[in-house]
User: What shape does this take?
Amino acid sequence: IHGNATCVMNYDGATGYMVGEENKGLRAMFIMMNAARLGVGLQGLAQGEIAYQNAVVYAGDRRQGRALTGAQDPEEKADTLFVHPDVRRMLMDGKAFTESMRGLVLWGALQVDLADKAETEEERRLANDLVSLLTPVIKGYGTAKGYDICTESQQVYGGHGYIREWGMEQFVRDARIAMIYEGTNGIQAMDLVGRKLGQNGGRAIQAFFKVVADEIAEAKGHEKLAGFAEALEKANGELQKSTLWFMQHGMTNPNNAGAGAYHYMHLMGIVSLGLMWLRMSKAAQAALEAGTDNPKYYEAKLVTAQYFAERFLPDTASLRRKIEGGSDAIMALDPEMFAVA
Ligand SMILES: Cc1cc2nc3c(=O)[nH]c(=O)nc-3n(C[C@H](O)[C@H](O)[C@H](O)COP(=O)(O)OP(=O)(O)OC[C@H]3O[C@@H](n4cnc5c(N)ncnc54)[C@H](O)[C@@H]3O)c2cc1C
Assistant: This one.
């Protein structure tokens, strides 16, 4: 890893010392692990962010081809990469992810503070429920999508993205480890579906649905926010139906929960970022209505939210279909058949 000394350490023949009470070791370890998981989620965001920022600079600098609608800079030999819709697709993915993931990471950090410092026991419990539910999502979805954004930003560079000179391949390699350590993303997904969903009779997931539903209900009353709110409501509906499906099919056959857990974690990641986009849209709309000396900044937020609604939220429907596919085909083959083409 870039800037990180890593080695294998073998403890054969070493002496172990008890830390804390007997049989409470795993619980003690998770105090550290939960904080570390949030930190690794932030790492996924940071790696996506730096790769995206580099790609933005490169796209404005590199000239290649002409705009489909006619030359933009006819006095130059070619237009910049910004004229190509497919390059913009990659850049908009980066913008839509990093800005909302920043919101989600900060929201998670706020819940950590509230879980400790909020005035009432009820508020502290709600914050603790939410951050504990969302921790595997921030880690698992944040790093998986952060990695995707690194490879898309690398692709903006074309061949220059692949060679060492430009540094993009280093971001991709750095981002890859975040999906593996502090518990692989597959394990995060199992933590979410196998542990967090059912804890305290599903109290945390019900609280999350209420947070999303309340935000949607309020936004629906605002003409400019209603369209996004309705799209998020649909996505939240896919998450609710998937949760119900697990309740009906995951208990009788745990492989159904295991087979769909990764998709569910992504589905919840998208809905969580959707919640952030709704809140950011609300703030942007309010700033524009109140009058601001920086309207372009807020208008860009609204456009990026629209992109998120068009290109991220629809994935929730296909993720639900995958979850409902269950585990029959996944578990059917004998291991030896995997080697037979
Ligand atoms: C560069 C680097 C730095 C690291 N730094 C540290 C460190 O500082 N401290 C530390 O303690 N560890 C560290 N690790 C270890 C790291 O946390 C583990 O490698 C990681 O959690 C995965 O565990 P594993 O390697 O044992 O994989 P395995 O547990 O063997 O997993 C292999 C595969 O099987 C899947 N799998 C395993 N069990 C299940 C299950 N029950 N359900 C579903 N899927 C399953 C996994 O998701 C994975 O895809 C580091 C690893 C690397 C590569």
